[in-house]
Write a structure and sequence with these properties.
This protein is α+β, with helices and mostly antiparallel strands. It has helices at 4-7, 21-30, 51-55, 79-89, 94-97, 111-121, 140-145, and strands at 35-39, 45-50, 66-69, 72-75, 125-130, 133-139. The chain is 34% helix and 21% strand. A hairpin with a 2-residue loop joins strand 3 and strand 4 (72-75).
Length: 151
C-alpha cells in the first residue's frame, strides 16, 4: 500500500504568518504553486495560504443587507462574516489571509484516502504532518505519478 510518506514532497516551500502579502504572491508565482503551508518558528503548521485566499483581496466588499423599521436598522447578515471578509480583503500579512483550519494527513495515510480528500473537498495540495510538525506536502501531481508503472 502506497502512503503519504512514499509520495510527499519534502522540499517544502513555506511562508510564515508575518510574511507580507506581496512577498507571498511572489513566492507562489515564482514557484508555480497553488498554495504554501504557513509555519511558525518551530516549523509547526499554523495555516495554509492558497491563490484563492489572495485573489479574495480583489473582491469588492459586499454591502450587507439591512432592514429598517421604526427608524431602527436591523442587519440581515452576520457582522462576524462581514468582519472576516473585510480582514481578508484588507490583509497585508499572511496571518490575516491564511486559512487556519487546515486539513492535513499523517505520513502513514494511504494514497486512496488522500485522493478522496482532494476530490471531495476540491483541494490541490494537502500538508503532511507528524504531530504538529510539517514533514511534507502532497499535490495532485504526486497522486497522478502513482498511476505510472515503474520500470
Amino acid at each position: 500500500m502506497i502512503t503519504a510518506s512514499d509520495i510527499m514532497e519534502t522540499n517544502i516551500i513555506c511562508v510564515n504568518p508575518d510574511t507580507d502579502i506581496t512577498r507571498a504572491v511572489e513566492v507562489l508565482l515564482n514557484n508555480h504553486i497553488n498554495g504554501a503551508p504557513v509555519v511558525d518558528k518551530r516549523e509547526e503548521l499554523v495555516g495554509i495560504l492558497c491563490q484563492s485566499d489572495l485573489i479574495f483581496q480583489q473582491k469588492e466588499l459586499p454591502i450587507p443587507p439591512i432592514f429598517t423599521i421604526l427608524d431602527g436598522i436591523i442587519p440581515l447578515a452576520s457582522s462576524k462574516k462581514l468582519e472576516d471578509e473585510f480582514q481578508k480583503i484588507s490583509a497585508t500579512k499572511v496571518k490575516q489571509a491564511m486559512v487556519t483550519d487546515v486539513t492535513t494527513v499523517a505520513p502513514e495515510t494511504p494514497v486512496a484516502e488522500i485522493a478522496s480528500l482532494m476530490v471531495e473537498k476540491h483541494f490541490h495540495t494537502i500538508p503532511v504532518v507528524d504531530g504538529k510538525k510539517l514533514v511534507g506536502i502532497i499535490g495532485k501531481e504526486d497522486i497522478l505519478k502513482t498511476m505510472i508503472p515503474k520500470a
